[in-house]
Amino acid sequence: MADKTIQWHSLIHRGAVLNKNKYRLRASSCPNIYRVSMTTLTKDDDEPWYSGLIKFVSLFDEFHYLLMSASTVLLFAWFMTPYFYLVDHMTASGYEEHEASLVLSAIGVANTLGMIFFGWAGDQTWTNVTKTYGVCMILCGACCSAIFLATANYTLLNIFAVLYGVFLASSFSFTPIVLVELLPLETFTKAYGLQLMCQGIGHLGGPPFAALLADLTGTWSYSFHLAGVWIVISGLLMLIIPYTKNRKLIGTGPVEKELANE
């Protein structure tokens, strides 16, 4: 009698198992990148109601992912300060509104071109993405403060605005790459979704606080300099990752990447 054993990772076995009601994927635009894993399958009836929430936030238990999440919250809380308030600051400093709009446009154009460049650079073997990301954030924060300091010189102001947009672009290009380096591919969807949540948390708190600070002090100086400081701290948090070992913060055991390699 012929041996009809089906290999575990074969397409036939995966297709047969995933087509069962118990093992249907919840949702994925690219289901073939998933392995047969309980992280992507429907919840068993005997699991407690809070098990899904625990699995959802479980990645925050990893040291490196928590560092990246904290960096993301800080960055997205403060990088919008020039986007939102640069025009108000420049018009208050005596510039025409169209001059301020041109500086803002320069940031946007530089940011777009920067995404293309860093997207290409991140795919090169000579690029250490995490270190480059951290350094770019530090330079981005420095440029944010420099934008305010260079207000009196329109040419210098445009230069720092362009550099700010370029360095900021590294966040959008490098975030998916860093996630893939830190975590196995099976957890990418959840990991990236949590990063989007962190971005939203940052957006909710940062810009309103920057505006409140300007109202209380009567100047945009504190808002721009504070934004620069926190963006630099965001970059420093990212630079900790390549120089430390990833580990669980609560309890012991291997991290997700080690489990996938096993």
Q: What does the model show?
A:
The chain is mainly alpha-helical. 67% of the residues lie in helices and 0% in strands. The protein contains 10 helices and no strands. It has helices at residues 11-18, 51-57, 63-78, 80-92, 97-121, 129-149, 154-182, 188-217, 221-240, 256-261. Helix 5 (97-121) packs parallel to helix 7 (154-182) and helix 6 runs antiparallel to helix 7 (154-182). The longest helix has 30 residues, at 188-217. The radius of gyration is 23 Å and the shape is elongated. InterPro entries: MFS, MFS_dom, MFS_trans_sf, Proton-linked_MCT. Residues 57-262 form the Major facilitator superfamily (MFS) profile domain.
Task: Fill in the keyword field for this structure.
262 residues; 10 helices; mainly alpha; elongated
- The average pLDDT value, as a whole number, equals 83
Structural class: mainly alpha
Inertia-based shape: elongated
In angstroms, what separates the terminal alpha carbons? 34 Å
Q: Classify the helix fraction into a percent range.
A: 55-70%
What's the helix count? 10
Radius of gyration: 23 Å
Task: Report the portion of residues in β strands.
Answer: under 5%
Main beta sheet, described?
Answer: none
Helix-strand sequence: HHHHHHHHHH
Number of E-type strands: 0
Low-confidence segments: 4-29, 32-41
Domain Major facilitator superfamily (MFS) profile: 57-262
Transmembrane segments: 63-80, 100-120, 132-150, 156-180, 220-241
Membrane topology: Multi-pass membrane protein
Subcellular location: Membrane
